[in-house]
Amino acid sequence: MDSSSEKALQVQLHPELEDKFIQDHHRFIIGCIWHVTHRFTTNRDEEYSIALIALHEAIQTYQADAGPFQPFAKLVITRRLTDYLRKEQKKSFEVVASPDSMNSGYEDSDREDEDTPSNLLIRKKVHEASMNTFTANERKNALAAEIQEAQTLLASYGFSFMDLTESSPKSEKTKEACKKAIIALLRPGELYEELKKSGAVPMKALAKASGVPLKVLERHRRYIIASAEILAGDFPLLADYLDSIRKELRS
Length: 251
Fold this sequence. Notes:
About 12% of the residues have low confidence. It is built from 16 helices and no strands. It folds into two domains: 134 residues, no CATH class; 115 residues, no CATH class. The chain is mainly α. The longest helix is centred in the N-terminal third of the chain and has 29 residues. The chain is 71% helix and 0% strand.
């Protein structure tokens, strides 16, 4: 069982430890919010408060047989934030699309919630406005911070973030093989836990689970480890580069 999972179970027994748990998981919370909103947030934003409430709920309902805590908590936080944003978007749409604010003069105002072309355009603009507040400079700084943290994490495996240039798959066939290996490594079970515990990929077990030849796994070991850690951890921006794998893991 990983550290976050153990600590979550401890917080259930000792609620006074929750504040420290939240402090230790600040970047995880920010990452979960980014995953949903694609927007930079601070602990003063409403989304952060929603995420804290969801994290508390995740701690209280977590059970050891549910797998690692962080993926479980991320699912709970994502659901709560998605519900909140849907309600906020509906409110924004109702304000923008109301006859008074539009000054439309339409008498048939009870049809304003229908999916007419004008209403769909309004919804699109409201959504775009909420998603574009993460400036290019903020994204650059956030990405640099993620790379730095990934560098520290990958150093524990004996390689650096820059080493991935050499170990990344080039051909589509090899990319697909590595994708299968990463998914098999992250699926619920013991493979990822073994990686975290021993610091090494359980090659034979992974080859059997993924159907990928050992020589391919050996050649792209660093890429597979880095991708698995990025997708399993608190790296929302870096994970965007692995979106096809992330989508398949969710399915």
